[in-house]
Amino acid sequence: MSLERFINQAVSSWMSAEGPDSDIVLSSRIRLARNIKQVNFPTIFSHDEAKRVIEIIKARMEKSTFDTYGDFSLLQMDDLQPLQKRVLMEKHLISPHLAENASHGACLLTENEEVSIMLNEEDHIRIQCLFPGFQLSEALEVANQIDDWLETEIDYAYDEQVGYLTSCPTNVGTGLRASVMMHLPGLVLTHQMNRIIPAINQLGLVVRGIYGEGSEALGNIFQVSNQITLGKSEEDIAEDLKSVVEQLISQERSAREALAKTSNIQLEDRVFRSYGILSNSRIIESKEAARCLSDVRLGIDMDYIQGISKNILNELMVLTQPGFLQQYAGGPLRPFERDIRRASLIRERLKMEDQELGG
């Protein structure tokens, strides 16, 4: 599979497919951090050791394929332009750290982009499985299968008492990060998120923005993930997160019902004003676009707007990011130029929906 395909095709399977509870849960992600025994961790390894990690993984891939997904495509970060790496990050296929800071990093991708294996990021190996909707257990099952498949030929850095050894102490143990990306406009509009986030933190979980640590919750999209990796099994960590997410789903649905009862005309007006802005704007900044897209997605979920795919939020949240806008433009754009292209792209995408509905 070519680099151009991963770069130019905006919609990954997790964006276009509908999973369980997809009106609220956009995606479920499992990430396993692993390191190779007797090789220095990426924080202190040499250029030759970084190359050795990639050669070890390539040798494993050459012995056999992972049956469920077939061959992986290897993308080496040193061969990519900054804009290409940014696009892969905006699609959630690589982490910001791998895109911006990793020396001699690489990524193995499946054709449908559900599985990404990052190499020489903060750890030697980071297995990521990204599924549409609320499918944490399914993502964990696939991640464990890939982990077992790699481990048949690779000796991991492992301690019998504490578990898998990682560069960051917070990942020691299972090396598991489980996260769920959620669209929570009802809880935001009813001013409940400021109360909910501290309560979630007390349970050993963390709430972050759309691109993880340090990112902003654009478009009312939040990532909920575990903080504890030591002293619990992978299954227990996933179950704890699932329990909290189920409560959030219930609370979000209740908030939407309350809005429909107490502020129905105001909410409908908000939705259609945002739709009007997206349909007609000639200039739009990323924050305003994210807010309006969130409103339109809420309007679709609540049947105010019909005939438009709910996946439009997932798709346009990626398509309107700076990396993608510049990729389609064929080169760097100033912020004002990006705002113009963002508005044009959104108008064209909504027009396509209208034409398909009319046809």
Number of helical segments with 4 or more residues: 14
Radius of gyration: 21 Å
**Which range best describes the helical content: under 10%, 10-25%, 25-40%, 40-55%, 55-70% or over 70%?**
40-55%
Taking the alpha carbons of the first and last residues, their distance comes to 33 Å
CATH topology of the domain at 1-18 and 31-164: Creatine Kinase, Chain A, domain 2
| Corresponding CATH superfamily of the domain at 1-18 and 31-164 | Glutamine synthetase/guanido kinase, catalytic domain
Describe the largest sheet. 8 strands, antiparallel
What is the mean predicted local confidence, pLDDT?
89
Q: Please identify the top-level CATH class of the domain at 1-18 and 31-164.
A: Alpha Beta
Could you state the order of secondary-structure elements as H and E? Answer: HHEHEHHEEEHEEEHHEEHHHHHH
Overall strand count: 10
- Please state the structural category: alpha+beta
